[in-house]
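With this grant's support, the team has encoded backbone shapes as discrete tokens. A representative record is reproduced below.
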Amino acid sequence: MQEKCTLIITEKPEAARRIAEALNLKGKPKKYEDNGVPYYVIERDKKIIVVPALGHLFTVTHERGGRNYYPVFNFVWTPRYMAERGAQQTKTWIETISKLAENADEFISACDYDIEGSVIGYCILKYACKNKEQIAKRMKFSTLTKAELEQAYENLLSTLDFALIEAGRTRHEVDWLYGVNLTRALTLAASRWSGKYATLSTGRVQGPTLKFLVAREKAIRSFVPVPYWTIKAEVEIEGQIFEAEYEVDVIKRKIEADKIIKACQGKTGKVEKIETKKFRQMPPIPFDIGGLQTEAYSLFGYTPRRTLDIAERLYLSALISYPRTSSQKLPQVIGYEKILKALSKNPTYRKLAAELLGKEKLTPHEGKKEDPAHPAIYPTGNMPDRELSEPERRIWDLVVRRFMAVFGEPAIKQSMKVTLNVNGHRFFIRGRRVLEEGWTKFYAPYIRSEEILLPPIEEGDKVKVLKVIREDKFTKPPPRYNPSSLLKKMEEEGIGTKATRADIIQTLYNRKYIREERIIVTDLGFDIIEVLSKYCPQVISVQLTRELEEKMEKIQSNGEKRENVLTEAVKILKPILEEIKSKEKIIGEALNEAVKKARIEERIIGKCPVCGTGQLMILYSRRTRKRFIGCTNYFKGKCETSFPLPQRGTLKPTGKKCKECGWPTIQVRIKGRRPWNLCFNPQCPTKERRKKVEV
């Protein structure tokens, strides 16, 4: 009879390796493979097998096949390989886990302790391990360090976290109900009208998010700039030149501005008043995932999705704590002193960590938000056991320095405001200086210096005015969202979750509803929102989405039942889908026009530099079946401009001009090669230089 064992299930292969190494009592754990699926056998109080998943191995799908119908309200949980194209790999993982489960008499979920991780572990235990979810135990940890993993194993939770599981299952099911029904309704309306298929998606969170962007785009496009004028003066104090701002920020009439210039030009200023203020700048708060994503975008230009991916790699390398957290608090139990002592082994952080360790008491400056599952993001104190990529190194350093900064003292700063009287008109010179660095020394690389030091000056002193300048300005439209500010907006409005927001933004890009880093809504995005607003406004209702989010949150605390939330979701969806179906032809025509415009838009490269009136676009020859660039005026018999294109790879207009010749450029992507931007102007100086090098 084969020896019974404990089966530990993890979310990812790297987590399985670290857990196996942490829990094994005799050297290195033995690694095995079954059809390419790795697993580890370790010895502790008994034989333990640690096997990873590949994220979600099971998903929600409809009970019967086909995608040419709606509404769909009956669903089942099924292996991903049966429901999704490109998920065949999951079949071998499910089979291997099922095989290993046959000889186990104890089961432990060691997936990430959050909604998604809880659902992953539950589904594997229920479906792959044949209904072991009721007897399984739970490991809870926030880092993959040896000490914390050992502690988590010694203090196993007696049951799975069923409240989190119910909330997670409900979220998946509600999002599936919305996504599959609305996407099918829009897609089928368009394809039945035109006879051509194109996926048009929307969803419970995707629709309201696109609505934010469309509202901002409309405000930008309808904005009418209004002229206004500002005045500043250049003054000299003890040989140094400073800029002085006029007492009125906005002057609405040019004639008024010119009067002020005339009155002040060539006059001497007199120091009328000096005001100094000391103020405390409190340390920053610890990172939650939204805070880290916002800071990484501001400093490095990383999208929220990219930052999350990097943070997850650092977590799996045991360098930082679990990143998908909404907490801004650092409990004492994580061991402030222990982490700082470990960081002090790194020469970069040695001096800074030593300073903090010299404090009588370590008290972090915390934010308001809490997460019952995990604390704020913090470094584990471990040093990298592999070479980090540049983006990984940056994010790790950012987390380390933010962690140290929250324990720093407030920075003491002084502001100075000098009021100059120039022929009856007042100008202000502002100075700033740091009196005590406080926490800023720990976060120094990521803080812009704001110091403006003024020389000694007293009331009554004369100041030489070098020149008085009028600046002609226009009011500006509201700024465009970027991925970071959009994520913040979603968080403020209470739609989506810390785990899903970045993916939803990426989906909007993938569906070609939006483009560019400073987000521009495409015609297709506009048309989608216009159709939804007209025929089913509830789909894009922020309030409706927020209410569903709140109900799903309550499931986590047993304040709401899964069945009630699902019933409510179906109740909302039914009349919406009936409305779309009754107006399918009208909706289909509108959407089809939008798709046609989008396809043309994708191929337009820019204005033709030869004729100056047509648009250059990617075209296909019916005769040769080759693609080339041609001018739209060709079809009007006005311009015969054309250029050859690479016949391999994918092409994408960049929307940018060549720096050398000013012609529009395209990006070429060929598998196995780095993408590059192509200028197709045969007389471009870059091509001439290349020819000379080759000769």
Residues 162-194 form the longest helix (33 residues).
